[in-house]
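Supplementary Data S3. Sequence and structure tokens for construct A.
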Amino acid sequence: MGTRRQFLAPSTPIARAAGTYRVAELRRTHPITMSTVVLLLQRSISNAEARVCRMVRSQWRDVCKNFMRRYQPRVTQGLLAGETARKICVDLRLCEPSMGSL
């Protein structure tokens, strides 16, 4: 059986789960393919974020849409970078950083 090519960075949750490691190789040999994959991921995340507001009660829907309009680019960027929800929340200054053990 031939070797299986693996393309996602190991720092992303998806890549860790799949055990994939060759993003640098893909970027070098297929730059158009990589930009297409990133664009598709961004669209997929944006679509998922839009669906969230449709699931919210009607009285909160406008608040949700305004929140998404304001923070969607940063949330999308964080998700693509493999950041945790907590880190994104802290970076947006919507959550306080946890103190951890002293």
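Construct B, processed identically:
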Amino acid sequence: MTITFIVSSSVAPSDLKNSNFKPFVVPSILPQQQNETRKQSYKLIQTSLEDKDIYLNVGSHNSFVMTAFQCYSQHHQLEIRPDDVWIAICTQFSNYVNGHSQDLRNKFVNFEGKKELTVYGSGTLMSANYVEMSREMAFEIAKNIKDPSVREWIIPDFSTTTPTDRMCGAVMLMATTKSYFDFKFMLLCGLPSVTLHGTVEDWIKLREKAQKLLEFDLKEGHMTKWSLMLFPILDQFVNSAKGNPDTEWWNRIAHTKGGGSGPTYLSGWITAFCVFDDKGRWHGDEKSKNDGWGRIFESSEWPIVDLDFVPRGFVNVPITVNDNGVTYKTEMFAGHMCSMRGDEEPNVALKPRVDWAFFVVEEE
């Protein structure tokens, strides 16, 4: 639901195209605004801001106040949500609490000093799900303050509230209580365990079979390039099967970056199995992505693949079947189509399946 009303009938709305607002650039603005005297550099990890072309720097370092001011002074129509007002209130409240933290201590906690709160997550510095971890931290704060309902009070819950609003609300809660708590995000490795089926000889045979790929190389050298990625992976499989797993290497199997309204990219050594697309085109050299904000998602070894464009794990082939004089067009599919629960730990383990399917192709 929205409501629009006229405030000044004598004032015509002006076109934003005629304004002199500059684009908003996160990496170059936020650190200086936070503290212009700090001699530190900042590297942006993640942000809810996706398409830089639509964001405007309206001046100062408070877009809520300055948007209202610019709309008033330059005759632009103002749009506002309950979330905008509430976050503005919470920002001021956070400043108030931190400015009077000792006087307000007994309102929030029943201990002296600061307590460390830890939330565990998966991924790396660049790929971790900080939205989820911030949400979990808000729950940890609620467990450790006198009035747990403060969490629900601060985090917005209007009909207009977005996941970004809730994320910001969680950070507001953290900032409000930072005089009483230190916050830690603990990133853990993504693979609890790995089970390799088959004998050591099977894994050695797999490595030996892959060697023949080089016989099919062309002038572009794609088989050679692929083998430089693939063969070390197969060697690691052999070593692991022999009882000498490199757990650090296994934990580099996959990681992601991006999301929101933009693409999510997959990297890690598993992408060595994604170097050719469905048309056989080579993508193994794509090892860095620039998102337009100056952030580069990169891997020194492995290709980077858009999760929406991971190549198919199965093949298909047309086959003509002659059933006692009656001819049918058919198509057979085979390869990795789905996964299933693991054999060793069915409640927590997954394994890929190799399957096939046979179809009659009927003309409509």
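The radius of gyration is 28 Å. The chain has three domains: 81-188, 200-309, 314-360.
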